[in-house]
Amino acid sequence: MHLSEIKSKMPEAVYSVLDKENIKELRPCQAKAIEAGLLERKNLLVCTPTASGKTLIAEMAALQSILNNKGKAVYVVPLRSLANEKFKDFKRRYGQLCRIALTIGNIDSADPYLQDYDLIITTAEKFDSLIRHHAAWLNQVSVVIFDEIHMLNDVSRGPVVEVLITIIKQLLNNVQILALSATIGNPKELAKWLDAKLIIDGWRPVELEKGTYFDGKLNFEK
Fold it and tell me: Is residue 113 predicted with pLDDT exceeding 80?
């Protein structure tokens, strides 16, 4: 699917940014997400290999909501380092289109200053804190993205993510939920729980080969 085929479905400003980034053709998982209703605010669970294009799916949903005045977008990641990385990337690409904030601190508060931002990047623990403190801007959130959703299986972080999703589904009636992961053991069950369409694709930018290293030699499977 060429980017030009969906030009009429997205804000002109977003299309221009992607075009300048030399994104001319969508990757398989991105095309599948579009066809499954990404830009029509459908919930999606995207299970595809690393570097297959999952982040752009989240970006399109977030900017679609923000620039069409549907509401704020929250991007939830498991680690502070990843949050910093996403903030820098999004700021570089979309900083001229919307107001982007990073909140990952240990201070337990409602962070009222986030009222003035459109795209909020945070960790699960910090987002949990914001919800517990009844942040006044939460009812303006229309899209929530959970990156590395397989962290649900993590002993320490999993319960926080599970509670977050449960609360969000109850608190925000019309929220669009996107869940992204390279590896999930039970995607069908998770998609059902999220009330999301399941996107599975095996395409990766570099072919993965399996082999055995023994006695100084690497033998690949044929």
Answer: yes
Give, in order, the Cα–Cα distances in Å from 206 to each of 33, 52, 174, 200, 214: 21, 9, 38, 17, 24
- What are the tokens at 206? 């570099």
CA distances from 11 to 39, 145, 154, 202 (A): 11, 20, 37, 29
* pLDDT tens per residue across span 47-103: 998 889 999 999 999 999 999 999 999 999 999 999 999 999 999 999 999 999 999
Nearest to 22 by CA among 2, 39, 5: 2
Taking a C-beta distance cutoff of 8 angstroms, is the pair 47, 53 a contact?
A: no
The pair of structure tokens assigned to 2 is 């060429």
The mean predicted confidence, pLDDT, of the chain is 92
CA-derived radius of gyration, the chain: 18
Question: In sequence order, which residues have a C-beta less than 8 Å from that of residue 92 and are 6 or more positions away?
Answer: none
**Domains detected in the chain:** 29-203 (3.40.50.300)
**pLDDT interval class at 3 (50, 70, 90):** very high
216 CB-near residues (< 8 Å, 6+ apart): none
What is the per-residue pLDDT across 151-160, written as a single tens digit (0 to 9) for each? 888 888 889 9
Report which DSSP code applies to 25. B
Give me the DSSP letters along 144-182. EEETTGGGGG-TTTHHHHHHHHHHHHHH-TT-EEEEEES
